[in-house]
Amino acid sequence: MRNCAIGLFVAAVVLQGGGASAQDNASCPETNERTNLALARAWHEDVVNQRKPEVLKDILSDRLVHHASGGYPKRMDAKGVAAMMDDFLKAFPDLRITFDLLEPRGEYVMQRYTATGTQRGPLGDIPATGRKATWTGINIFRIACGRIAEVWSEVDAAGRAKQLTEK
Fold first, then answer.
1. In the 3-class helix/strand/coil scheme, how is 12-39 assigned residue by residue?
2. Exposed, middle or buried by CB within 10 Å (0-12, 13-18, 19+), for 34?
3. What is the pLDDT of the chain when averaged over all its residues?
4. Strand residue runs (E) in 22-160
5. Distance CA 114, CA 101 (A)
6. Secondary structure of residue 123 in the 3-state scheme
7. Given 19, 26, 29, 45, which residue has the most CB atoms within 10 angstroms?
């Protein structure tokens, strides 16, 4: 059942226009599901859990398109993603991401994660609260030419905001 749902979700993403082949350019490095999985894992494992935001320069395409939800612009480029990650690392200095699902499918990698952190700095219009929050999210990464070329993100920003602001 899970594989069927993942397959349908990937098909929907491809039909919405995110389906150029990862090997379109002859000068691109060869990729496979293992290397694609490593790139997708680095998004949270290296950048967030290991506090190495500089890794983004190595894993993101110069033409990255990030389709976001949860309080950020609906579309961001690599600079926008770097700023977003910086915002989260400053707001939640103890932020940890655990992977609930990390599943490669050709040039796509699906990721479901759980994030937990204590808000010590502002995040958007929410000032530092000192409260701990746990939220979930889903990312679908499309890998092209050995880099993350496109990301679709759905985040439980409302649940996170409620935990941070509810009295």
1. HHHHCCCCCCCCCCCCCCCCCHHHHHHH
2. exposed
3. 88
4. 60-67, 75-76, 96-105, 108-118, 132-144, 147-155
5. 10
6. strand
7. 45
For the segment 88-105, what is each residue's pLDDT rounded down to a tens digit? 999 999 999 999 999 999
> Encoding tokens for residue 29?
């490095």
Is pLDDT above 90 for 26? no
3-state secondary structure of 114: strand
Domain ranges of the chain: 25-165
Distance of alpha carbon 102 from alpha carbon 45, whole angstroms: 12
User: CB-based contacts of 122: which residues, under 8 Å, 6+ apart?
Assistant: 91, 128
CATH number of 25-165: 3.10.450.50
- Residues 164 and 130 sit within 8 Å (Cβ to Cβ): no
Q: How far apart are CA 97 and CA 55, in angstroms?
A: 16
What is the C-alpha separation between 39 and 104, in angstroms, rounded? Answer: 11
CA atoms within 13 A on the CB side of 90: 12
